[in-house]
Amino acid sequence: MATRRGFITGASGIGTAALLGYAAAPQAAAATADGAAGAAKVSPQQAKDSLLAVNAGMRTNYAVLKAELIKHLSPVIVVQNDAKGGRFTLVTENGQESANPVSETFELAKSIAHVPLGIFSVIASYLADHIPNLPNADRIDPHDLLMVAFDDHTSTAWIPPLQAYAATLTTARQNLPDAGLPAALTTSCGNILDAALRFIETSVTTQSFDMKSFEDFSGSVYPDIRTNMEHAAQAQIKGVQDQMTAWRRKVGETGWADLYCVVISQWTTSVLNQNTIIIKDCMNPAKVATHLIDLPGLENPVDPVFTALDNLARIVQDNVAAEMVFPKDTKVADALKGKEDLLSDEILIQLGTARGVTKSAPTYNMAAGAVCPIKK
Fold first, then answer.
1. What share of residues in the chain are helix, strand, coil (percent, to 5)?
2. What does the radius of gyration of the chain's CA atoms come to, in whole angstroms?
3. Is 340 helix (H, G, I), strand (E, B) or coil?
4. How far is CA 358 from CA 315, 335, 344, 345, 350, in A?
5. Could you tell me the pTM of the whole model?
6. Digit-coded pLDDT (tens) for 49-70
7. For the segment 180-206, what is each residue's pLDDT rounded down to a tens digit?
8. Contact yes or no for 276/294 (Cβ under 8 A)
């Protein structure tokens, strides 16, 4: 069977370009036909276009390789963070399977813990554009507050939506005993809902609120929020660890040792992401640094699995390309491998702010016999 390299090498220059999806400029074709007879005159713009065509050709070749590489990525676990604790998808050469392994306790506990944020979202734009004498006053940026408090603070337009939210909270409070939650969690949820309803009632009755009254409310339920966080974390840890253990057995030790995990998250939760923290201890420790990838974005992608695999293919092929394209400069190779732009160091040098420490190249070698620390 002919290799891709051998096939392209055996093709003509123009034929290869057409095969890969881009065409040579007419002037280049004419020059090729004339051989050494002399190049045709070209305009400056045509000359520039011919140079830019080189990069266009590279991008086409790069895309072809990436599209094919996606088909060979295995094993991979893709994690899409969501309100249920995360949707996990295992990708192997035999196909895909998905699961939401975290119990309902996670979502229920977080739902009630979010009550203060729900109220804040209704009243925030009506806050006065000044910072009162609060314990954390110096931590609130005045300009940020000015942008958030964009409505007239004397308006009472916040009352109807706040009353509508209160109706939702009231129904939840009435039904809380029948939700089947652990006793401690039932108590904490009840405390949060009761305090929220009191704050809303007082605010609506007096037709006023301010940052202090809201912080008095939110601060009073903080211990209960911590209780909810504790139960949510316990549910997530157990669910994720159990799922990872089951998939490790299915994949086998050899495959699991080379496992890639791609965690898709929003930027606001991309550092110390909850699933990343748990998954880290379930992978081969020799490869966590290079095979556990946080992929932050602005919104959840339409097809999270394809998005993860598409980005992972780019990462994997750049890892190999880095050492082969820049064999004499590991610093630049590291930039191609990682999150840095290839020009970053050169720009720092020219700006006079070059880094004093050169990163060592990440390793992709694994000690023989290394295995995932999860117990069978």
1. 60, 10, 30
2. 29
3. coil
4. 21, 11, 13, 10, 17
5. 0.79
6. 999 999 999 999 999 999 999 9
7. 999 999 999 999 999 999 999 999 999
8. yes
